[in-house]
Design a protein that fits this description.
heterodimer, A: 431 residues, alpha/beta, Rossmann fold, Ubiquitin-like (UB roll), four-stranded mixed β-sheet, 10 strands, 42% helix, globular, B: 159 residues, alpha+beta, Arc Repressor Mutant, subunit A, Glutaredoxin, 4 strands
Chain lengths: 431, 159
Amino acid sequence: MLQETKVVTELAGTEGLRRLEVYEAHGGYGALRKALTGMKPQEVIDEVKRSGLRGKGGAGFPAGLKWSFVPRDHPGPKYLAANADEGEPGTFKDRWIVEENPHLLIEGSIIASYAAGIDHAYVYTRGEFFTARRVLLGAIKEAYARGYLGENILGSGYALEMTVHSGAGSYECGEETALLTSLEGGRGHPKLKPPFPATHGAWGRPTVINNVETLATVPSIINRGADWYRSFGTEKSPGVKMVSISGHVEKPGNYEIPLGTPVRMILDDLGGGVWKGRELKAFAPGGSSTPLLLPGNLDTPYDYESIAEAGSMLGSGGIIVFDETTDMVRVAEILTRFYAWESCGKCTPCREGTRWMLQIYERILNGGGRMEDLDLLLDICEGIDSKSFCPFGDAALGIVRSTIQHFRAEYENYIRKHKVYKRKFMPVRHH
Amino acid sequence: MRVRVELHPALKQWIEERFARYPSERSLVVPALLEAQKYYSYVSPEVEIGLAELLGMPPQEVHSVASFYSMLHQHPVGRHIIQVCHNVSCYLRGAEDVIAHLEEVLGIKVGETTEDGRFTLVTVECLAACGQAPVMMVDEKLVEQVTPERAEAALAEFD
């Protein structure tokens, strides 16, 4: 029976954990003290590099390496953007971390900032995260009062400001360069890379963007060392990962596992298996943007390389489970609508392509689909693929391609029989 | 003709207190627009002009930003906003029934406001609470594991 390996979630459930004194009583801010009073910034970077910590927001980029790209002797301010703009459907770990253990994020952010020579850290939260923002603001206030933020932190001479910044409803702003554009006061449009944010980020200054879970992992690595972190996971995917299990399982929720754990164990032992005693039809392994996998993939180890080899992505760690009764065409329509409505509109292939795909899905679900629509959908996917500034366009393709590939018969059933999806409500875009 | 608009003093203060946190004043435009909705029922052209003045931006640029974000209302809305998630994980656990039931008890469709101006009903994308699906929000309050009955009951405290 698989047990969780709790690193980020270690203190979860502790009474009063949002309060500084409770967090400190459980060893909180010990890693900050260790880093700022006993380690040089380069030593912190080296330790995190050696740990193999990879970004947990979706891209999986090595965190220490990212910090090392920030030019050290660059005059003028440098910034950290902690990405708390969690919006990938099926993912709910970052909001949970902020609400459960806000000081862990703050401590990790200060250590990361110290390592990369950051002057001001912004925590960009989704507009909808009212509670998380309230909790975080309270915790930051405590951290300032205790001398963990502001001037001369712990007598080290290092100074850092921290500010909570709110979005106002936009999936695209979770993409790192769109997040910066939004932070600067614009529509959430991505920027072309290169130049990369590490040298030309927020307000044209060197900027590090890290996911909440990534930052929340840093204190443990500093406390216990890179070798300890590497003792979990696989050679190429070291350490642990939070998984958010949702959909048709008995026990949906957040769990933390060593990377490389077989998907079957995650879903059965932690998620309680498919609900109502039903069979599994498919699952999205890493959020709504990742191509669906099938019951035949259940023994795949849950790490970046193995999930990629199986034809999908580990992404953000949001595992969405679909039981045998699921209407996969309707699922594809829901997600295509999501991508069409949330496309920021900057790049033509994504903006127009996702809308065309939505129109096709609507006619299929209204009983007016044509057999050639399937090839047309795949053709539009081809037209979007890798042709936009940011990964958003590509993110919209996984569900379309994988449902057509694996569940073509369901599409054909709609089209041949002019089957109509009985809508219980009409979706309307709100502004 | 440019109209001169005086923003609510508390809103103005909220924004000005935060100027020092950013290298440019316009960086505050998104949070400021969200905050403005506590004082005005929606982001009207007047609000945009007032913010433009304060943030040193052209009003049309404030409008461009305001029209991008889904939480910034371009039209008058009810006193309370009900946002029900219609995305995949909530769909899988019954969100459609919740939305349909709310439409029925409120006597409005998604996107509409009740005649008494009490509620606006909208759907929302994933609220990052899929472990408790289906979920909805009423103003700033997240309601988890909603059933049609629980959704209806959750409205009672908002008048």
